[in-house]
């Protein structure tokens, strides 16, 4: 006998929330969901959400602000059915030069910030008995990278978080997956020197950086009906840099 599927998503656009949806990868993700007719809310500190998105000012490290942002998204679009936890920062430097603030800020934003938004989103998804949670990690979380002890630790932490959530929330019809991009052409990588960029390109089998919309394509797929049976996965979008890790 064929098992029943999880409840189907509604025919009209879903309520999608993306953290850091004003620029870079998050913006490309927001634009992709908007283009397919979903109702999109983006959180940002600086502003500048794409046309068609509900802009919500919230720092992911501020739980009260995140709670208020979700409430506003719910009022405008209904309960959040798709969460993309994308907001992230780097504070790169070698371990012995690393200030405690460099460690604390990166972990607070990338790991605890993701916990903050995921926990808030899960409340509504549990009521709905349906949902997609997508965490944006990095190839660096799996391969490691000199000068990125803080960042790699925060991004590796997302894998453990997602796999635990996949087990906790899977029985309630909620999938949780990780996307691990390689190097993507955004403000985050614009600070690298030309020499660093060339060195990275040399290690990437596809020989180039990703465009942000190439990450967005994997995210919208994970949120689609086609990926209904995918959970606890770590999907690289890295031009082959991590060779499947
Ligand atoms: P950008 O630096 O271009 O953008 C970062 C985004 O995160 C901005 O929207 C920013 O919002 C938001 N953000 C940062 N801190 C906070 C905070 N405390 N609260 C709320 N929002 C915050 O980065 P990318 O687009 O390149 O990166 C997006 C994600 O992808 C990050 O998690 C990053 O680690 C990951 N990634 C990026 C790679 C790359 O090569 N670019 C590779 C692998 C992973 P605001 O403008 O309002 O500050």
UniProtKB/TrEMBL annotation:
Domain Ketoreductase: 14-187
Stored Gene3D superfamilies: NAD(P)-binding Rossmann-like Domain (3.40.50.720)
Keywords noted in UniProt: Oxidoreductase
GO terms for MF: 3-oxoacyl-[acyl-carrier-protein] reductase (NADPH) activity
Highest taxon of source: Bacteria
SMART domains tied to this protein: PKS_KR
CDD domains: BKR_SDR_c
EC number: 1.1.1.100
Matches recorded under Pfam families: adh_short_C2 (PF13561)
Annotated family: Belongs to the short-chain dehydrogenases/reductases (SDR) family.
Entry-linked NCBIfam families: PRK12826.1-2
PANTHER family per the UniProt record, alphabetical: 3-OXOACYL-[ACYL-CARRIER-PROTEIN] REDUCTASE, SHORT-CHAIN DEHYDROGENASES/REDUCTASES FAMILY MEMBER
Protein known as: 3-oxoacyl-[acyl-carrier protein] reductase
Organism: Nocardioides thalensis
